[in-house]
Design a protein that fits this description.
Layout: H1 5-9, E1 18-19, E2 33-36, E3 49-53, H2 62-74, E4 79-84, H3 93-101, E5 105-110, H4 115-149, H5 154-165, E6 169-173, E7 178-182, H6 186-197, E8 220-224, E9 227-235, E10 241-249, H7 260-300, H8 306-316, E11 324-331, H9 334-339, H10 348-369, E12 374-379, E13 382-388, H11 396-412, E14 418-426, H12 431-450, E15 455-457, H13 462-471, H14 474-494, H15 498-507, H16 512-519, H17 523-537, H18 544-561
Helix pairs in contact: 2-3, 4-5, 4-7, 5-7, 7-8, 10-11, 13-18, 14-18, 15-16, 15-17, 16-17
Length: about 575
Protein backbone atom coordinates (compact mmCIF):
# COMPACT_ATOMS: atom_id res chain seq x y z
CA UNK A 1 0.00 0.00 0.00
CA UNK A 2 2.02 2.94 -1.31
CA UNK A 3 1.93 5.92 -3.67
CA UNK A 4 3.98 5.51 -6.85
CA UNK A 5 5.27 7.91 -9.50
CA UNK A 6 2.73 6.40 -11.88
CA UNK A 7 -0.08 7.30 -9.47
CA UNK A 8 1.12 10.91 -9.52
CA UNK A 9 1.40 10.91 -13.34
CA UNK A 10 -2.21 9.75 -13.48
CA UNK A 11 -3.41 12.95 -11.79
CA UNK A 12 -5.68 14.96 -14.05
CA UNK A 13 -3.61 18.10 -13.46
CA UNK A 14 -0.54 16.29 -14.89
CA UNK A 15 -2.28 15.49 -18.14
CA UNK A 16 0.25 17.62 -20.01
CA UNK A 17 3.32 16.01 -18.39
CA UNK A 18 5.75 14.09 -20.59
CA UNK A 19 7.89 11.23 -19.26
CA UNK A 20 11.26 11.49 -20.98
CA UNK A 21 13.14 8.55 -19.41
CA UNK A 22 12.59 5.18 -17.66
CA UNK A 23 8.81 5.30 -18.12
CA UNK A 24 8.55 1.53 -17.55
CA UNK A 25 9.78 2.04 -13.93
CA UNK A 26 7.11 4.56 -12.93
CA UNK A 27 4.80 1.89 -11.48
CA UNK A 28 7.57 0.54 -9.24
CA UNK A 29 8.93 3.84 -7.89
CA UNK A 30 7.40 4.65 -4.48
CA UNK A 31 6.81 8.27 -3.47
CA UNK A 32 7.30 9.00 0.23
CA UNK A 33 7.55 12.79 0.05
CA UNK A 34 7.44 15.73 -2.37
CA UNK A 35 9.56 18.89 -2.47
CA UNK A 36 10.84 21.72 -4.64
CA UNK A 37 14.62 21.74 -5.11
CA UNK A 38 17.06 23.99 -6.92
CA UNK A 39 20.83 23.94 -6.85
CA UNK A 40 22.73 22.99 -4.79
CA UNK A 41 21.26 19.60 -3.87
CA UNK A 42 23.76 18.54 -1.18
CA UNK A 43 21.88 16.30 1.32
CA UNK A 44 18.49 18.02 1.19
CA UNK A 45 16.75 15.32 -0.87
CA UNK A 46 15.54 12.16 0.86
CA UNK A 47 15.20 8.70 -0.58
CA UNK A 48 11.98 8.13 -2.59
CA UNK A 49 11.26 11.87 -2.66
CA UNK A 50 9.48 13.33 -5.67
CA UNK A 51 11.48 16.42 -6.66
CA UNK A 52 10.04 19.41 -8.55
CA UNK A 53 12.44 21.95 -10.09
CA UNK A 54 12.80 24.78 -12.60
CA UNK A 55 16.57 24.05 -12.94
CA UNK A 56 17.07 27.79 -12.76
CA UNK A 57 20.62 27.46 -11.44
CA UNK A 58 21.85 25.48 -14.40
CA UNK A 59 21.97 28.53 -16.72
CA UNK A 60 21.69 26.31 -19.82
CA UNK A 61 25.14 24.88 -19.06
CA UNK A 62 25.26 21.19 -19.95
CA UNK A 63 27.76 20.06 -17.31
CA UNK A 64 26.02 22.02 -14.57
CA UNK A 65 22.66 20.54 -15.57
CA UNK A 66 24.19 17.07 -15.77
CA UNK A 67 25.76 17.45 -12.30
CA UNK A 68 22.45 18.63 -10.86
CA UNK A 69 20.60 15.57 -12.20
CA UNK A 70 23.39 13.28 -11.03
CA UNK A 71 23.05 14.64 -7.48
CA UNK A 72 19.30 14.01 -7.55
CA UNK A 73 19.87 10.45 -8.76
CA UNK A 74 22.49 9.82 -6.07
CA UNK A 75 20.08 10.98 -3.37
CA UNK A 76 17.72 8.09 -4.22
CA UNK A 77 14.86 10.35 -5.30
CA UNK A 78 11.76 8.79 -6.86
CA UNK A 79 11.74 11.09 -9.91
CA UNK A 80 12.69 14.58 -11.08
CA UNK A 81 9.92 16.75 -12.62
CA UNK A 82 11.24 19.77 -14.52
CA UNK A 83 9.13 22.83 -15.37
CA UNK A 84 9.86 23.56 -19.06
CA UNK A 85 9.71 26.96 -20.75
CA UNK A 86 11.83 29.59 -19.04
CA UNK A 87 15.08 28.15 -17.66
CA UNK A 88 15.02 24.85 -19.56
CA UNK A 89 13.53 24.57 -23.04
CA UNK A 90 14.76 21.07 -23.80
CA UNK A 91 16.39 18.33 -21.75
CA UNK A 92 19.80 17.67 -23.32
CA UNK A 93 20.22 14.19 -24.76
CA UNK A 94 23.34 13.68 -22.60
CA UNK A 95 21.25 14.28 -19.45
CA UNK A 96 18.49 11.99 -20.73
CA UNK A 97 21.08 9.30 -21.46
CA UNK A 98 22.44 9.66 -17.91
CA UNK A 99 18.95 9.18 -16.47
CA UNK A 100 18.29 6.13 -18.67
CA UNK A 101 21.53 4.53 -17.55
CA UNK A 102 20.30 4.78 -13.95
CA UNK A 103 16.65 3.84 -14.80
CA UNK A 104 15.72 7.23 -13.37
CA UNK A 105 12.53 9.08 -14.30
CA UNK A 106 12.79 12.55 -15.84
CA UNK A 107 9.41 14.21 -16.37
CA UNK A 108 8.71 17.42 -18.28
CA UNK A 109 5.99 19.66 -16.79
CA UNK A 110 4.21 22.59 -18.46
CA UNK A 111 5.55 25.91 -17.16
CA UNK A 112 2.10 27.14 -16.23
CA UNK A 113 1.50 24.21 -13.84
CA UNK A 114 1.91 25.46 -10.27
CA UNK A 115 4.20 23.39 -8.05
CA UNK A 116 1.96 24.13 -5.06
CA UNK A 117 -0.96 22.42 -6.80
CA UNK A 118 1.10 19.29 -7.45
CA UNK A 119 2.41 19.29 -3.88
CA UNK A 120 -1.11 19.67 -2.49
CA UNK A 121 -2.43 16.69 -4.47
CA UNK A 122 0.54 14.49 -3.55
CA UNK A 123 0.29 15.39 0.15
CA UNK A 124 -3.44 14.61 0.22
CA UNK A 125 -2.72 11.12 -1.04
CA UNK A 126 0.31 10.63 1.21
CA UNK A 127 -1.63 11.73 4.29
CA UNK A 128 -4.47 9.41 3.36
CA UNK A 129 -2.06 6.52 2.96
CA UNK A 130 -0.41 7.33 6.29
CA UNK A 131 -3.82 7.34 7.95
CA UNK A 132 -4.63 3.95 6.44
CA UNK A 133 -1.25 2.59 7.49
CA UNK A 134 -1.76 3.89 11.00
CA UNK A 135 -5.19 2.23 11.20
CA UNK A 136 -3.78 -1.02 9.83
CA UNK A 137 -0.86 -0.81 12.25
CA UNK A 138 -3.25 -0.32 15.16
CA UNK A 139 -5.23 -3.33 13.99
CA UNK A 140 -2.05 -5.42 13.95
CA UNK A 141 -1.24 -4.22 17.47
CA UNK A 142 -4.72 -5.20 18.68
CA UNK A 143 -4.52 -8.65 17.06
CA UNK A 144 -1.12 -9.30 18.61
CA UNK A 145 -2.45 -8.23 22.00
CA UNK A 146 -5.37 -10.64 21.58
CA UNK A 147 -2.93 -13.46 20.89
CA UNK A 148 -1.04 -12.65 24.11
CA UNK A 149 -4.28 -12.49 26.13
CA UNK A 150 -5.40 -15.79 24.56
CA UNK A 151 -2.16 -17.41 25.81
CA UNK A 152 -1.18 -18.26 22.22
CA UNK A 153 1.96 -20.27 21.49
CA UNK A 154 4.94 -18.44 20.02
CA UNK A 155 4.57 -20.38 16.74
CA UNK A 156 1.08 -18.92 16.27
CA UNK A 157 2.37 -15.40 16.95
CA UNK A 158 5.18 -15.95 14.41
CA UNK A 159 2.68 -17.15 11.78
CA UNK A 160 0.57 -14.01 12.23
CA UNK A 161 3.58 -11.68 11.95
CA UNK A 162 4.64 -13.50 8.78
CA UNK A 163 1.22 -12.97 7.18
CA UNK A 164 1.30 -9.24 7.91
CA UNK A 165 4.87 -8.76 6.65
CA UNK A 166 4.62 -11.34 3.86
CA UNK A 167 8.13 -12.46 4.82
CA UNK A 168 9.66 -15.56 6.38
CA UNK A 169 10.94 -15.03 9.93
CA UNK A 170 12.68 -16.55 12.94
CA UNK A 171 12.26 -15.83 16.63
CA UNK A 172 15.32 -16.71 18.72
CA UNK A 173 16.70 -16.30 22.21
CA UNK A 174 19.66 -14.03 22.98
CA UNK A 175 22.12 -16.67 21.72
CA UNK A 176 20.41 -17.40 18.39
CA UNK A 177 18.61 -20.62 19.41
CA UNK A 178 15.39 -20.83 17.39
CA UNK A 179 12.22 -20.64 19.48
CA UNK A 180 9.74 -20.27 16.61
CA UNK A 181 9.95 -20.15 12.82
CA UNK A 182 7.54 -19.26 10.01
CA UNK A 183 8.35 -19.81 6.34
CA UNK A 184 11.86 -21.21 6.86
CA UNK A 185 12.71 -24.52 5.14
CA UNK A 186 14.57 -27.30 6.92
CA UNK A 187 17.65 -26.54 4.80
CA UNK A 188 17.60 -22.88 5.84
CA UNK A 189 17.19 -23.81 9.50
CA UNK A 190 20.23 -26.10 9.25
CA UNK A 191 22.18 -23.28 7.58
CA UNK A 192 21.05 -20.98 10.39
CA UNK A 193 22.42 -23.32 13.06
CA UNK A 194 25.76 -23.43 11.26
CA UNK A 195 25.92 -19.63 11.06
CA UNK A 196 25.08 -19.31 14.75
CA UNK A 197 27.78 -21.86 15.55
CA UNK A 198 30.29 -19.70 13.67
CA UNK A 199 29.23 -16.62 15.65
CA UNK A 200 27.78 -14.79 12.61
CA UNK A 201 24.35 -14.53 14.24
CA UNK A 202 23.12 -12.78 16.32
CA UNK A 203 24.77 -9.75 14.71
CA UNK A 204 26.90 -7.58 17.00
CA UNK A 205 27.93 -4.86 14.50
CA UNK A 206 27.56 -1.14 15.22
CA UNK A 207 24.30 0.68 14.57
CA UNK A 208 23.74 1.79 10.94
CA UNK A 209 24.38 5.42 10.18
CA UNK A 210 22.25 7.85 8.26
CA UNK A 211 18.88 7.24 9.93
CA UNK A 212 17.67 8.97 13.05
CA UNK A 213 14.63 6.76 13.62
CA UNK A 214 15.25 5.18 17.08
CA UNK A 215 13.59 1.94 15.98
CA UNK A 216 15.61 1.60 12.77
CA UNK A 217 18.81 2.37 14.69
CA UNK A 218 18.26 -0.91 16.57
CA UNK A 219 18.10 -2.92 13.33
CA UNK A 220 21.04 -4.97 12.08
CA UNK A 221 21.33 -6.83 8.78
CA UNK A 222 23.07 -9.99 7.62
CA UNK A 223 22.84 -12.62 4.92
CA UNK A 224 21.65 -16.22 5.15
CA UNK A 225 21.74 -18.51 2.12
CA UNK A 226 21.84 -15.50 -0.23
CA UNK A 227 18.86 -13.79 1.44
CA UNK A 228 19.08 -10.57 3.45
CA UNK A 229 17.91 -10.88 7.05
CA UNK A 230 16.88 -7.95 9.22
CA UNK A 231 17.61 -8.45 12.93
CA UNK A 232 15.23 -6.76 15.36
CA UNK A 233 16.04 -6.95 19.10
CA UNK A 234 13.44 -8.13 21.59
CA UNK A 235 14.07 -5.99 24.66
CA UNK A 236 13.20 -6.34 28.32
CA UNK A 237 13.05 -3.65 31.01
CA UNK A 238 16.83 -3.75 31.38
CA UNK A 239 17.19 -2.71 27.70
CA UNK A 240 19.35 -5.80 27.19
CA UNK A 241 18.37 -7.91 24.18
CA UNK A 242 16.66 -11.02 25.55
CA UNK A 243 16.04 -12.40 22.07
CA UNK A 244 15.73 -11.44 18.41
CA UNK A 245 13.29 -11.38 15.51
CA UNK A 246 14.91 -12.13 12.13
CA UNK A 247 12.92 -11.23 9.00
CA UNK A 248 13.73 -11.90 5.34
CA UNK A 249 13.68 -8.62 3.40
CA UNK A 250 14.74 -7.19 0.07
CA UNK A 251 18.44 -6.44 -0.03
CA UNK A 252 18.09 -2.65 0.17
CA UNK A 253 16.06 -3.04 3.39
CA UNK A 254 19.25 -4.01 5.10
CA UNK A 255 20.11 -0.32 5.20
CA UNK A 256 16.86 0.54 6.92
CA UNK A 257 14.91 1.39 3.75
CA UNK A 258 11.69 -0.43 4.60
CA UNK A 259 8.23 1.05 4.51
CA UNK A 260 6.67 2.70 7.53
CA UNK A 261 3.99 0.03 7.96
CA UNK A 262 6.61 -2.75 8.16
CA UNK A 263 8.55 -0.75 10.75
CA UNK A 264 5.40 -0.43 12.85
CA UNK A 265 4.66 -4.15 12.54
CA UNK A 266 8.21 -5.02 13.58
CA UNK A 267 7.94 -2.69 16.56
CA UNK A 268 4.63 -4.22 17.66
CA UNK A 269 6.01 -7.72 17.05
CA UNK A 270 9.10 -7.06 19.20
CA UNK A 271 6.91 -5.74 22.01
CA UNK A 272 4.56 -8.74 21.75
CA UNK A 273 7.42 -11.26 21.80
CA UNK A 274 8.91 -9.46 24.81
CA UNK A 275 5.55 -9.73 26.61
CA UNK A 276 5.32 -13.41 25.69
CA UNK A 277 8.82 -14.06 27.02
CA UNK A 278 8.07 -12.15 30.24
CA UNK A 279 4.93 -14.19 30.76
CA UNK A 280 6.74 -17.46 30.07
CA UNK A 281 9.57 -16.50 32.39
CA UNK A 282 7.09 -15.64 35.14
CA UNK A 283 5.31 -18.97 34.66
CA UNK A 284 8.57 -20.93 34.70
CA UNK A 285 9.86 -19.07 37.74
CA UNK A 286 6.60 -19.77 39.57
CA UNK A 287 6.75 -23.46 38.65
CA UNK A 288 10.40 -23.66 39.71
CA UNK A 289 9.60 -22.02 43.06
CA UNK A 290 6.68 -24.39 43.67
CA UNK A 291 8.80 -27.41 42.78
CA UNK A 292 11.62 -26.24 45.03
CA UNK A 293 9.22 -25.74 47.93
CA UNK A 294 7.75 -29.19 47.34
CA UNK A 295 11.15 -30.93 47.26
CA UNK A 296 12.29 -29.03 50.35
CA UNK A 297 9.15 -30.02 52.29
CA UNK A 298 9.57 -33.62 51.12
CA UNK A 299 13.23 -33.67 52.22
CA UNK A 300 12.42 -32.15 55.60
CA UNK A 301 9.37 -34.35 56.24
CA UNK A 302 6.99 -31.39 56.51
CA UNK A 303 3.92 -32.99 54.89
CA UNK A 304 1.17 -33.90 57.30
CA UNK A 305 -0.14 -36.75 55.16
CA UNK A 306 0.81 -38.87 52.19
CA UNK A 307 -2.36 -37.83 50.36
CA UNK A 308 -1.41 -34.16 50.64
CA UNK A 309 2.05 -34.82 49.19
CA UNK A 310 0.74 -37.02 46.37
CA UNK A 311 -1.79 -34.35 45.37
CA UNK A 312 0.88 -31.65 45.29
CA UNK A 313 3.24 -33.93 43.38
CA UNK A 314 0.64 -34.71 40.74
CA UNK A 315 -0.03 -31.00 40.17
CA UNK A 316 3.71 -30.45 39.61
CA UNK A 317 4.13 -33.43 37.29
CA UNK A 318 5.89 -35.68 39.82
CA UNK A 319 5.11 -39.34 40.58
CA UNK A 320 5.73 -40.31 44.20
CA UNK A 321 4.83 -43.91 43.41
CA UNK A 322 8.25 -44.51 41.84
CA UNK A 323 11.21 -45.75 43.92
CA UNK A 324 13.70 -42.97 44.72
CA UNK A 325 17.11 -42.58 46.31
CA UNK A 326 18.22 -39.27 47.81
CA UNK A 327 21.42 -37.43 46.91
CA UNK A 328 22.81 -34.32 48.59
CA UNK A 329 25.20 -32.00 46.77
CA UNK A 330 27.09 -28.90 47.77
CA UNK A 331 28.97 -26.41 45.54
CA UNK A 332 31.97 -25.77 47.76
CA UNK A 333 33.73 -22.75 46.27
CA UNK A 334 31.15 -20.43 44.72
CA UNK A 335 32.06 -17.57 47.04
CA UNK A 336 35.73 -17.93 46.15
CA UNK A 337 35.00 -18.02 42.41
CA UNK A 338 32.78 -14.94 42.67
CA UNK A 339 35.59 -13.07 44.41
CA UNK A 340 37.77 -13.51 41.34
CA UNK A 341 35.20 -11.89 39.06
CA UNK A 342 34.78 -8.27 38.11
CA UNK A 343 32.76 -6.60 40.93
CA UNK A 344 30.60 -4.91 38.27
CA UNK A 345 29.09 -8.28 37.31
CA UNK A 346 26.20 -8.04 39.78
CA UNK A 347 25.61 -9.35 43.29
CA UNK A 348 26.78 -12.70 44.63
CA UNK A 349 23.18 -13.75 45.26
CA UNK A 350 22.15 -13.34 41.62
CA UNK A 351 25.38 -14.86 40.31
CA UNK A 352 25.17 -17.91 42.58
CA UNK A 353 21.54 -18.44 41.52
CA UNK A 354 22.63 -18.61 37.90
CA UNK A 355 25.44 -21.05 38.75
CA UNK A 356 23.07 -23.32 40.67
CA UNK A 357 20.64 -23.11 37.73
CA UNK A 358 23.40 -24.37 35.40
CA UNK A 359 24.11 -27.28 37.76
CA UNK A 360 20.40 -28.14 37.99
CA UNK A 361 20.16 -28.12 34.18
CA UNK A 362 22.93 -30.71 34.04
CA UNK A 363 21.19 -32.78 36.72
CA UNK A 364 18.04 -32.87 34.60
CA UNK A 365 20.07 -33.61 31.47
CA UNK A 366 21.76 -36.58 33.17
CA UNK A 367 18.41 -37.91 34.39
CA UNK A 368 16.95 -37.56 30.89
CA UNK A 369 19.96 -39.32 29.33
CA UNK A 370 19.57 -42.22 31.77
CA UNK A 371 15.76 -42.23 31.37
CA UNK A 372 15.24 -41.61 35.06
CA UNK A 373 12.74 -39.36 36.81
CA UNK A 374 14.33 -36.73 39.03
CA UNK A 375 13.09 -34.16 41.56
CA UNK A 376 15.47 -31.36 42.51
CA UNK A 377 15.73 -28.36 44.80
CA UNK A 378 18.34 -26.09 46.35
CA UNK A 379 17.99 -24.98 49.96
CA UNK A 380 20.52 -23.61 52.47
CA UNK A 381 23.51 -24.42 50.28
CA UNK A 382 22.46 -28.02 49.59
CA UNK A 383 21.31 -29.50 46.29
CA UNK A 384 18.44 -31.86 47.05
CA UNK A 385 18.03 -34.67 44.52
CA UNK A 386 15.54 -37.52 44.54
CA UNK A 387 16.62 -39.86 41.72
CA UNK A 388 14.47 -42.69 40.43
CA UNK A 389 16.05 -46.02 41.34
CA UNK A 390 14.55 -48.96 39.45
CA UNK A 391 14.31 -52.10 41.63
CA UNK A 392 16.77 -54.07 39.52
CA UNK A 393 19.45 -51.36 39.57
CA UNK A 394 22.19 -51.34 42.16
CA UNK A 395 24.67 -48.77 43.36
CA UNK A 396 25.79 -48.12 39.76
CA UNK A 397 22.52 -46.23 39.17
CA UNK A 398 23.54 -43.24 41.29
CA UNK A 399 27.26 -43.60 40.50
CA UNK A 400 26.64 -43.41 36.75
CA UNK A 401 24.29 -40.49 37.35
CA UNK A 402 26.89 -38.49 39.27
CA UNK A 403 29.62 -39.45 36.80
CA UNK A 404 27.58 -38.03 33.91
CA UNK A 405 26.88 -34.80 35.80
CA UNK A 406 30.51 -34.28 36.71
CA UNK A 407 31.77 -35.03 33.18
CA UNK A 408 29.53 -32.36 31.70
CA UNK A 409 30.16 -29.86 34.48
CA UNK A 410 33.88 -30.49 34.03
CA UNK A 411 33.53 -28.93 30.57
CA UNK A 412 30.98 -26.22 31.38
CA UNK A 413 32.04 -25.15 34.88
CA UNK A 414 35.51 -26.67 35.37
CA UNK A 415 36.39 -24.55 38.42
CA UNK A 416 33.33 -25.46 40.50
CA UNK A 417 34.04 -28.02 43.25
CA UNK A 418 31.11 -30.27 44.19
CA UNK A 419 30.77 -32.63 47.13
CA UNK A 420 28.15 -35.40 47.10
CA UNK A 421 26.44 -37.55 49.67
CA UNK A 422 24.47 -40.64 48.63
CA UNK A 423 21.55 -41.66 50.81
CA UNK A 424 19.68 -44.93 50.96
CA UNK A 425 16.54 -46.04 49.14
CA UNK A 426 13.31 -44.39 50.30
CA UNK A 427 11.25 -47.50 51.05
CA UNK A 428 7.94 -45.62 51.22
CA UNK A 429 6.59 -42.08 51.36
CA UNK A 430 7.92 -41.52 54.87
CA UNK A 431 11.40 -42.61 53.76
CA UNK A 432 12.00 -39.52 51.61
CA UNK A 433 13.02 -37.37 54.57
CA UNK A 434 15.24 -39.98 56.22
CA UNK A 435 16.86 -40.81 52.86
CA UNK A 436 17.85 -37.20 52.31
CA UNK A 437 19.02 -36.72 55.89
CA UNK A 438 21.24 -39.77 55.43
CA UNK A 439 22.59 -38.34 52.15
CA UNK A 440 23.32 -35.04 53.89
CA UNK A 441 25.08 -36.84 56.76
CA UNK A 442 27.16 -38.81 54.25
CA UNK A 443 28.15 -35.57 52.50
CA UNK A 444 29.32 -34.00 55.76
CA UNK A 445 31.26 -37.11 56.82
CA UNK A 446 32.85 -37.25 53.37
CA UNK A 447 33.95 -33.62 53.72
CA UNK A 448 35.58 -34.46 57.04
CA UNK A 449 37.33 -37.62 55.89
CA UNK A 450 38.22 -36.79 52.27
CA UNK A 451 37.81 -33.03 51.98
CA UNK A 452 35.68 -31.05 49.47
CA UNK A 453 35.07 -32.48 46.02
CA UNK A 454 34.47 -36.11 47.03
CA UNK A 455 31.53 -38.48 47.31
CA UNK A 456 30.45 -40.54 50.28
CA UNK A 457 27.82 -43.26 50.37
CA UNK A 458 25.77 -43.49 53.54
CA UNK A 459 26.39 -47.24 53.66
CA UNK A 460 30.13 -46.57 53.98
CA UNK A 461 29.73 -44.37 57.06
CA UNK A 462 28.71 -47.02 59.63
CA UNK A 463 31.85 -46.70 61.73
CA UNK A 464 31.65 -42.92 61.65
CA UNK A 465 27.97 -42.96 62.62
CA UNK A 466 28.78 -45.28 65.52
CA UNK A 467 31.38 -42.82 66.72
CA UNK A 468 28.87 -40.04 66.32
CA UNK A 469 26.41 -41.83 68.57
CA UNK A 470 29.16 -42.43 71.13
CA UNK A 471 30.08 -38.77 71.02
CA UNK A 472 26.54 -37.85 72.07
CA UNK A 473 26.73 -39.71 75.39
CA UNK A 474 27.72 -37.59 78.38
CA UNK A 475 30.45 -39.97 79.59
CA UNK A 476 32.05 -40.12 76.15
CA UNK A 477 32.00 -36.35 75.83
CA UNK A 478 34.00 -36.01 79.05
CA UNK A 479 36.55 -38.60 77.94
CA UNK A 480 36.97 -36.96 74.51
CA UNK A 481 37.39 -33.45 75.94
CA UNK A 482 39.80 -34.47 78.65
CA UNK A 483 41.93 -36.45 76.19
CA UNK A 484 41.87 -34.23 73.10
CA UNK A 485 41.55 -30.73 74.55
CA UNK A 486 45.29 -30.30 75.36
CA UNK A 487 46.15 -31.13 71.74
CA UNK A 488 43.49 -28.75 70.39
CA UNK A 489 44.72 -25.86 72.54
CA UNK A 490 48.38 -26.54 71.67
CA UNK A 491 47.55 -26.63 67.92
CA UNK A 492 45.68 -23.33 68.21
CA UNK A 493 48.61 -21.67 70.00
CA UNK A 494 51.55 -23.12 68.04
CA UNK A 495 49.94 -24.02 64.67
CA UNK A 496 51.67 -27.42 64.81
CA UNK A 497 48.75 -29.74 63.94
CA UNK A 498 49.46 -32.45 66.47
CA UNK A 499 46.07 -34.04 65.78
CA UNK A 500 46.90 -34.36 62.07
CA UNK A 501 50.35 -35.70 62.94
CA UNK A 502 48.84 -38.42 65.12
CA UNK A 503 46.30 -39.40 62.41
CA UNK A 504 49.10 -39.80 59.85
CA UNK A 505 51.27 -41.75 62.31
CA UNK A 506 48.40 -44.09 63.09
CA UNK A 507 47.53 -44.46 59.38
CA UNK A 508 51.06 -45.69 58.66
CA UNK A 509 50.84 -48.09 61.62
CA UNK A 510 53.56 -46.35 63.62
CA UNK A 511 56.14 -46.30 60.80
CA UNK A 512 58.12 -43.12 61.52
CA UNK A 513 59.89 -42.95 58.14
CA UNK A 514 56.68 -43.24 56.10
CA UNK A 515 54.89 -40.75 58.34
CA UNK A 516 57.73 -38.22 58.04
CA UNK A 517 57.71 -38.49 54.23
CA UNK A 518 53.94 -38.13 54.08
CA UNK A 519 54.01 -35.01 56.28
CA UNK A 520 57.16 -33.66 54.59
CA UNK A 521 58.88 -33.48 58.00
CA UNK A 522 62.39 -34.23 59.17
CA UNK A 523 62.49 -37.44 61.21
CA UNK A 524 63.61 -35.59 64.34
CA UNK A 525 60.80 -33.04 63.96
CA UNK A 526 58.27 -35.86 63.75
CA UNK A 527 59.71 -37.55 66.83
CA UNK A 528 59.49 -34.23 68.71
CA UNK A 529 55.80 -33.96 67.83
CA UNK A 530 55.08 -37.53 68.88
CA UNK A 531 56.76 -36.94 72.27
CA UNK A 532 54.74 -33.74 72.63
CA UNK A 533 51.52 -35.71 71.99
CA UNK A 534 52.45 -38.19 74.70
CA UNK A 535 53.35 -35.50 77.22
CA UNK A 536 50.16 -33.47 76.63
CA UNK A 537 47.78 -36.45 76.75
CA UNK A 538 49.58 -38.61 79.26
CA UNK A 539 49.18 -41.55 76.84
CA UNK A 540 51.85 -43.79 75.36
CA UNK A 541 51.90 -44.27 71.59
CA UNK A 542 53.39 -47.75 72.01
CA UNK A 543 50.69 -48.96 74.39
CA UNK A 544 47.84 -50.56 72.34
CA UNK A 545 45.14 -49.47 74.79
CA UNK A 546 46.39 -45.87 74.89
CA UNK A 547 46.72 -45.84 71.10
CA UNK A 548 43.15 -47.12 70.69
CA UNK A 549 41.79 -44.53 73.13
CA UNK A 550 43.58 -41.66 71.40
CA UNK A 551 42.44 -42.78 67.93
CA UNK A 552 38.85 -43.12 69.16
CA UNK A 553 38.92 -39.65 70.69
CA UNK A 554 40.44 -38.01 67.57
CA UNK A 555 37.96 -39.62 65.18
CA UNK A 556 34.99 -38.89 67.44
CA UNK A 557 36.12 -35.29 67.90
CA UNK A 558 36.31 -34.81 64.14
CA UNK A 559 32.93 -36.43 63.56
CA UNK A 560 31.31 -34.13 66.13
CA UNK A 561 32.86 -31.15 64.35
CA UNK A 562 30.81 -31.95 61.22
CA UNK A 563 27.50 -31.58 63.07
CA UNK A 564 25.88 -28.11 62.66
CA UNK A 565 25.07 -27.84 66.36
CA UNK A 566 28.65 -28.50 67.28
CA UNK A 567 30.32 -26.48 64.56
Amino acid sequence: MQLTVQDVLDYELLEGAVVRTAKEHAQMRPVHWVSVMEMPVENFVRRNELVLTTAMGCNNELETFRGFVQDIIDSGAAALMIAMGRHVYEIPKEVAQLAEEHSFLLVELPWELRFSTVIEEVMIDLNDLHRQERQRSEQVQQELLKLILADAELEKIAAYIRRELDSALLITDAYGTVQAAAGFSRAKLEEWEQQVGKGLFPIRQAAPKGNRDPMIQKFRSGELAGQMLLQVPVLQVSEEAQGYLFVEVQEDAGNGHIDVFSIHVLEHAATTISLWRSRQNAVEETKAALRMDFVRELANGEFTSKEQAVSRARALGYDLGLPYIALAGSPENLRELFGRRNPKHGSYTEWSKSMVAYIEEEIHYAAHAMKRTVMTGYVDGYLIIFLEKPPESGQENQINFLDLIERRLGNLLPEVVLSWGIGDHAQDFYGFSSSFQHAKAALEIGRMKKGPGHRMDYRDTRADRLLLQLAKTEGMKDIILSTIQPLVEYDQQRQMDLIGTFSAYNHYQGNVSQTARALNLHRQSLLYRLRKIESLTGLSLVDPDDLFLLELCVRTYRIRATEPNDA
